[in-house]
Design goal:
Layout lengths: L1 H6 L8 H37 L78 H22 L15 E8 L2 H14 L8 E8 L5 E10 L2 H13 L5 E4 L1
Antiparallel strand pairs: 1-3, 1-4, 2-3
Helix pairs in contact: 3-4
Length: 247
């Protein structure tokens, strides 16, 4: 009897709050488990559908053709539309600003300028070493041999030639003695008779002080520089030194 009373004691009965907490915990677990299963099933369903769905055919590659319509049309006024009053300066002075100067491009044709005349530098054409003196002496000896034979023939009456005119001369050599200069001119003229036919010899004496005196062998007179250059060119082709000088 005492044992039955002890089993039914109020302090041995469970508290109602403990039953409530245990019931709520088990419900939450069930809900979370159900949500997890649903998510997994949905994910698996998406994967299965992606592999089993039929693929749509893309068809042939599209080809783009050019439009057959006219793209460019010739204007009615090929030279451009004329805009009136473009030359009026009133439009440039709206803001009271000074007008800018317009650069005018000149024509491309050039005006020929006169060629500057440089003073001719007189140069002394030195005689060639070793061979030149022998050539001059040989020419002098030949002239001496020819002189007696020529004396027997009556000399023709000399005809006075018109005095040559011009400002240019050629110089072919320079010697310390005038006789050698004269003999040298005779030899050169003999070898270039067609070139020097119209030239007269001039033996210009130059005093060099301590160095002595030189006789420059020149021929003239020549009307223009071009003619003088042509004569020198022909002499140089025959291995004869030559330079153009002014009178």
């Amino acid at each position: 009897m005492a044992k039955q009373n002890s089993d039914n004691a109020s302090w041995l009965r469970p508290i109602p709050e403990e039953f409530t907490r245990k019931g709520m915990t088990s419900k939450r677990r069930m809900i979370l488990s159900a949500v997890t299963v649903v998510v997994l099933l949905g994910f698996c369903l998406l994967i299965w559908m992606s592999y089993t769905s039929d693929t749509t055919e893309l068809g042939p590659v599209p080809v783009i053709h050019a439009d057959g319509a006219v793209v460019k049309i010739k204007p009615d006024e090929p030279g451009g539309k004329e805009i009136r009053f473009q030359d009026k300066e009133v439009f440039n002075r709206v803001d009271n600003m000074p007008a800018e100067e317009v650069d005018v491009i000149a024509s491309s044709s050039e005006i020929p300028l006169k060629r500057p005349v440089k003073p001719e530098e007189e140069q002394v054409a030195e005689e060639a070493p070793a061979k030149a003196p022998q050539t001059v002496e040989k020419a002098a000896d030949e002239a001496d041999k020819i002189a007696p034979a020529a004396a027997a023939v009556p000399a023709p009456v000399p005809v006075k030639k018109a005095a040559p005119t011009g400002n240019y001369m050629i110089q072919i050599g320079a010697f310390a003695e005038k006789s050698k200069a004269e003999a040298f001119w005779a030899t050169v003229k003999k070898n270039n008779s067609s070139v020097l036919a119209n030239l007269s010899p001039v033996y210009m004496r130059v005093d060099l002080g301590a160095k002595g005196v030189l006789y420059r062998v020149r021929g003239g007179m020549i009307d223009d520089r071009k003619s003088a250059d042509n004569i020198c060119t022909k002499l140089k082709q025959n291995n004869q030194n030559c330079l153009v000088v002014t009178n």
